Automatic annotation (TrEMBL):
<dbReference type="InterPro" id="IPR015422">
    <property type="entry name" value="PyrdxlP-dep_Trfase_small"/>
</dbReference>
<dbReference type="InterPro" id="IPR015421">
    <property type="entry name" value="PyrdxlP-dep_Trfase_major"/>
</dbReference>
<dbReference type="GO" id="GO:0004400">
    <property type="term" value="F:histidinol-phosphate transaminase activity"/>
</dbReference>
<keyword id="KW-0663">Pyridoxal phosphate</keyword>
<dbReference type="InterPro" id="IPR024892">
    <property type="entry name" value="ArAT"/>
</dbReference>
<keyword id="KW-0808">Transferase</keyword>
<dbReference type="InterPro" id="IPR005861">
    <property type="entry name" value="HisP_aminotrans"/>
</dbReference>
<dbReference type="InterPro" id="IPR015424">
    <property type="entry name" value="PyrdxlP-dep_Trfase"/>
</dbReference>
<comment type="similarity">
    <text>Belongs to the class-II pyridoxal-phosphate-dependent aminotransferase family.</text>
</comment>
<dbReference type="InterPro" id="IPR001917">
    <property type="entry name" value="Aminotrans_II_pyridoxalP_BS"/>
</dbReference>
<dbReference type="GO" id="GO:0030170">
    <property type="term" value="F:pyridoxal phosphate binding"/>
</dbReference>
<keyword id="KW-0032">Aminotransferase</keyword>
<comment type="function">
    <text>Aminotransferase that catalyzes the conversion of aromatic amino acids and 2-oxoglutarate into corresponding aromatic oxo acids and L-glutamate.</text>
</comment>
<feature type="modified residue" description="N6-(pyridoxal phosphate)lysine">
    <location>
        <position position="215"/>
    </location>
</feature>
<comment type="subunit">
    <text>Homodimer.</text>
</comment>
<dbReference type="GO" id="GO:0000105">
    <property type="term" value="P:L-histidine biosynthetic process"/>
</dbReference>
<feature type="domain" description="Aminotransferase class I/classII large">
    <location>
        <begin position="22"/>
        <end position="344"/>
    </location>
</feature>
Amino acid sequence: MSRRDVVRSLPPYKQGAAEGPDAVKLSSNENPYPPLPSVVAEIERRLGSYNRYPSMGAVEVRTAIAERFGVTPDQVAVGAGSVEVATQLVHATAGLGDEVIFAWRSFEAYPIITVVGGATPVKVPLRPDLHHDLDAMAAAITDRTRLILLCTPNNPTGTTLHTDEVEAFLARVPDDVIVAIDEAYVHFNRDADSVSGLDMLARHPNVVNLQTFSKAYGLAGLRIGFSISSAEIAEDLRRVATPFAVSDLAQHAALASLAHEDELDVRVERIVAERERVTAGLRSQGWPVGDSQANFVWLSTGDDTARIDNVLRSHGVFARCWQPEGIRLSIGSQQENDRCLEAFADAVR
């Protein structure tokens, strides 16, 4: 059997861990609250349709997304999570010899989907303050650059990009290079100066806005995300999309979620309040916690990361750790966060 060397060189995507019946899973940036009753009811209503393929064009959900964001349905593309839409972007824009630029560290799927798509990943280190280095990213653009991925709030650091700096950055990007603004965590963002992907799209037709139903909407297990872009780019994304990738259950759960956003907003505010409480609690213990606008916080724990992770695990608390960089800690329920703070207190030297 022949195997591609480039595939064997890829680090596997690492799913957040949680071991044991009483484990506190704070490793995957999931919504700690179950789906809304109205969403569950809609899913139950559709259970008898498993024998049929879903709508491949997802026209109904694309129309609802378009109405929600004030665009037209032909500007919307969907996929099995926003990461699948990002994969569509790579496949639609880049090939062998082409380059895809993104900050690093950022969403760990970016280099994987780039390499699998045949393109070359260009990782631009974050600034010391853990923000995107847009000057360095602009300097990295070559005649082979096809796609640039901007993650805001950034996963895993929680830092945001501001409107003025992105405008200045886009002025340095050639019009034929696509810039994807990945806002998977936008619902948790309270930074008034943050860039809006949709606002950028209104002024720059080479911008694509990525969003997901996995985080704030709590549909991570159903897998549905979307992009909003020019109609021409969206058409290309639909052409390269895996047929029937978004299930009927996912599509109708998304429709029900959009119809009950006021209920979801209450849960989002609860998560944001817990984020601020956890941040204050960790800082009071002396931990280096950055400001985050996502549903997680980042601790720059450096060479001590593995030791701290072992202490957390001994308490049944599972975070996402990168040795020797730091720890990304998802925000859970109040009870889960209390256990987390207790575990970190035990890890203080």
